[in-house]
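Ticket #4471: structure export looks truncated?
Reporter: QA, pipeline team
Priority: medium

Steps to reproduce: submit the single chain below to the structure queue and open the exported record.
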Amino acid sequence: MSVVSNLQDIKSLISKSCAHEGRKVDDVTLVAVSKFQDDGKIDDALNAGLRIFGENRVQEAETHWVARRVQYPDLQLHLIGPLQSNKAKDAVALFDVIETIDRVSIAEEIAKECAKQNRNPVCLIQVNTGNEQQKAGVSLDDLPALITKCQELKLNIQGVMCIPPVNEPAAFHFALLKKLSLRHNLPLLSMGMSADFEKAIKVGATHIRIGTALFGDRQPQE
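Actual output as written to the record:
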């Protein structure tokens, strides 16, 4: 299946899900996850009209998008993978949305770079809704303090993001994230991927992150 055909199928499912929930299609943003994808598929997505892309790694994102930014000035790039402090400078320079703030130290580095670069990317806090030790994301207990700190740092915090545990019902974690967004008045909800984005839309996702269903299997990585 081609990227264009896959995109048509995904848009149809988004439209049906939104109609079922009484939501507007425009209320759900498709973030095309281009990590580990080859240039041909990325260009196919661009030619199909997609302009919002998600990347996990800063360095790979630079190879994908620095040159293309000149050709496509309306691109919106989302960082959806964990961010190390030594990459904060590059991340702030490249990304329009940083979805993975999960600790005070990285919030401080991002705030420092925002001031230096006069940039103001939209920021989301990644929440470890399953409290998985091996997974990135702030714990449920530490979330309120991190939000307060981000606000003190004047970060443009607008939402929350999660990746549910693979062995638990995703809908439970989506509902939990929705509850947290309402409690803390953070309207953006980044949740749902290729296998479960319809469930996320049902709960209220504003951003869904779709890779495999759009591009097909990723390139094997060494």
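Status: closed, not a bug. The export was complete when the record was re-opened. Leaving a note from the reviewer for reference: Residues 108 and 153 are 7 Å apart (CA to CA).
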